[in-house]
Amino acid sequence: MAITAAMPTAKERPRRTRRKRVSALPALKLSQLLPSHIDLRNPLKAVLVCEDCKTWVPITGMQSKVQKLVPHHTGKADVDAAIHCRGSNRRIEFDMTIPEWRQALADAITEASSRQATAVLPKAFSPQTDRTLRARAERRPAGRADDWDAVLPRVAAADKNRRAVPAGDAPTEGPAVPLETLHPQCPAR
Fold first, then answer.
1. Which residues on adjacent β-strands are paired with residue 159?
2. Whether the predicted model's global pTM rises above the 0.85 cut
């Protein structure tokens, strides 16, 4: 199919304006930022936390001479007013390499994990709980045996009362309840 003058052609669309304007704020150096506020895992799509509005912002111009933060607003999209962040178009100085950043991030993770508490702190004791715990700590196996010997008469009395059959309370309907075991050769559990 040949192109003729009568065929419509697509008109040239306006391109996105690329401004060379840079923020008047001093350039951000990556070495001065926290390693956890930088993401260089994909170097062509690097992002970092804007110091002014504390949001993650991409870095433009990764393959050009000047790298800077993408122009952005301070609030959330479609929620807050569209106020231009003063950290927009701020230059970025790459004064560390990606392996240096990874090492700094690994060091920061190690340091943060060592700061986490590993021991569970006990609750505050009442005076009575404190006395009980001290008494338990002071007891020895011989003392525990004495405690058991002191309790045994009460346990025997409770067992005797449990085995006793009440007089006159036998069920009127149905068979009598057997008092002997059906399998005397089985070991008791």
1. none
2. no
